[in-house]
Amino acid sequence: MRIIHPIIKSLLLIVSAITSTGYAHEPIVKFVSPSTPIQIDKIMSAASAQGGKTAARAGAVASALTDTPFASTADSDTPDAPVRISLDSIDALDLVEYAIAAAKASMMPGQQINEFTKSLTEVRYRRGENNGFTSRLRYISDWIADNSYRNNIREITSDLPGNVFTSRTLDHITRNRDKYPALADSATFEKMQMLEMGYRVHKIPYMKRESIGKKQVIELLEDNDIIILFGNEKDSDMTDIGFIRIENGKPLFLHASRKDGKVLTEPESLPEYMKLMAKQIAGYRILRIKD
Predict the structure, then answer these.
(1) What pLDDT was estimated at residue 76?
(2) From the CB of residue 239, how many other CB atoms can be counted at a distance below 10 Å?
(3) 276 near 269, Cβ under 8 Å?
(4) Terminal CA-to-CA distance of the chain, rounded, Å?
(5) Segment 118-135, tens digit of pLDDT
(6) Cβ neighbours of residue 61 under 8 Å, at least 6 residues apart?
(7) pLDDT of res. 80
(8) What is the dihedral sign for C-alpha 211, 213, 218, 222?
(9) What does the alpha-carbon distance between residue 227 and residue 31 come to, in Å, rounded to a whole number?
(10) 146 Cβ partners below 8 Å, 6+ apart?
(11) What pLDDT shows up at residue 24?
(12) Integer Cα distance of 256 and 109 in angstroms
């Protein structure tokens, strides 16, 4: 029997009560571009050609998306929020979600586009069900709790030497209501406020920025682990997210870069990148994709 961490269990019970519609339904899917099915085939082929475990396949997909333009996508969701699939431009969390979804779907029989859509819904939405704007896992702590519960990922931050904790009150979305068109709808705004109540003074494990260069930490990292970077803002829990690449014993960072406007692997090692971004990054968390 799988043991659920008490904090994760309580958070899931709170948000389930807020967002549950009482029934599951087939998600409405929106392909942003006519070329989207072709692009899905491309990343599915990359995952299948890689073979092996889910993490390796996800890493191959992330590599296949190199040079894809960066664009923030989740902010424009409407209250009904269909499963929006855009591979013409993506943001940092899109990259991770598309990579995991394609990796999982590549192992399934049947029509690949349908399997990809189902896998993406499983990763992106609470309990794997799209019930509108508030069901999308918009805070990374929420995303981790839900995907850990459903056995998609495991957080290993607390396994690393020197891990510490910080507290955040996650209400960035409702505090910036004007930036999210869906929140013009009062009912959606109130649901989002109630969801955020579950993340008041939320305890977060993390590693200090400087630790990424330590040998005892690097030795515990694996190729295609997911790394989450966050800053000092008290109302949010993620600045960036991407994949770790281990090359010649050094960790590199593959992500959808807002600064460079595309998906790339940073030329500097992660320790060097962290130093360059010291003003923006306070620490990091590490996730591992599960089979």
Answers:
(1) 67
(2) 20
(3) no
(4) 17
(5) 999 999 999 999 998 999
(6) 43, 46, 47, 98, 99, 102, 103
(7) 78
(8) positive
(9) 28
(10) 12, 15, 126, 127, 137
(11) 40
(12) 30
| 124-136: b (≥16 Cβ within 10 Å) or e | bbbbbbbbbbbbb
Using CA atoms, how far apart are residues 268 and 200, in angstroms rounded to an integer? 36
Pairing outcome for strands 250-257 and 262-265 = antiparallel
Task: Count CA atoms closer than 13 A to 20's CA, side-chain side.
Answer: 9
All residue ranges of the chain with pLDDT < 50 are 1-4, 6-25
d(CA 143, CA 124): 8
How buried is residue 51: exposed, middle or buried, by Cβ count under 10 Å (0-12/13-18/19+)?
exposed
Q: Looking at residue 82, what is its pLDDT?
A: 82
* DSSP-derived secondary structure letter, 238: -
Which runs of consecutive H residues, i.e. helices, occur in the chain?
6-19, 36-50, 54-64, 92-105, 112-124, 140-149, 172-175, 186-197, 215-218, 270-276
Spatial distance between the Cα atoms of 62 and 58, rounded to a whole number of angstroms: 6
Q: How far apart are CA 269 and CA 70, in angstroms?
A: 21
d(CA 214, CA 161): 10
User: Dihedral angle at the C-alpha atoms of 182, 187, 190, 196, nearest 10 degrees?
Assistant: -50
Query: HSE of 243 in the Cβ direction (CA atoms, 13 Å)?
Result: 30
Closest CA to 227 of 87, 43, 92: 92
pLDDT for 2 equals: 41
Separation between Cα atoms, residue 250 and residue 223, nearest integer Å: 10
Q: Is 25 helix (H, G, I), strand (E, B) or coil?
A: coil
pTM above 0.70, yes or no: yes
- The position carrying tokens 């459903």 is 150
